[in-house]
UniProtKB/TrEMBL annotation:
InterPro entries: Mpv17_PMP22 (IPR007248). Keywords: Membrane, Transmembrane, Transmembrane helix. It comes from Carassius auratus (Goldfish). It holds the Pfam family Mpv17_PMP22. It is found in: Membrane. This is Mpv17-like protein isoform X2.
């Protein structure tokens, strides 16, 4: 377990992600109130074209900054596009559930739970992958195999 990396991810999540999501979800609801198909579609489009790229960028650059990397944009340049495309397979579905099923006061909490799962993928991808769906599926389908491979690599 890399506690330093865990701390850095938690700092980025607590200082930016949670606060941003709280205000973002309320702004979306204020601008596009209700649960009609048109309003939900507008919220999903804005969320995926503005919030998702911003949140992904803050994650990669924020963690790199906290780790003291000389080029804080290196991980972002290498993995952003793949991570964004992979996120398009996850976030629209989660946000659809959020906008349709959750009352406004629970949306940030629901998004936080969804984001915890997503952050797990991001951390794995940042350390061992390239941000693609194939890496995510390999990790989900065979986590024990991934852990054994990593421990073998660390033992060398």
């Amino acid at each position: 377990m890399d506690w330093r990396h865990t701390r850095n991810v938690a700092i980025v999540a607590l200082s930016f992600q949670g606060n941003f999501n709280y205000f973002w979800l309320r702004a979306l609801e204020h601008r596009f109130p209700g649960r009609s198909a048109g309003m939900i579609f507008r919220k999903l489009i804005l969320d995926q074209t503005f919030a998702s790229p911003l949140a992904t960028s803050v994650f990669y650059t924020g963690v790199s900054f906290l780790e003291g990397k000389e080029d804080i944009f290196a991980d972002w340049r290498e993995k952003f596009f793949n991570t964004y495309k992979t996120g398009l397979m996850y976030w629209p579905f989660m946000q659809f559930l959020n906008f349709v099923l959750m009352p406004l006061y629970l949306r940030t909490a629901f998004m936080g739970c969804s984001a915890f799962l997503w952050a797990t993928f991001l951390c794995f991808s940042r350390q061992s992958g390239d941000g693609t769906a194939a890496v995510a599926l390999a990790w989900i389908m065979a986590p024990k195999k991934q852990l054994l491979a990593r421990s073998t690599d660390e033992g060398k």
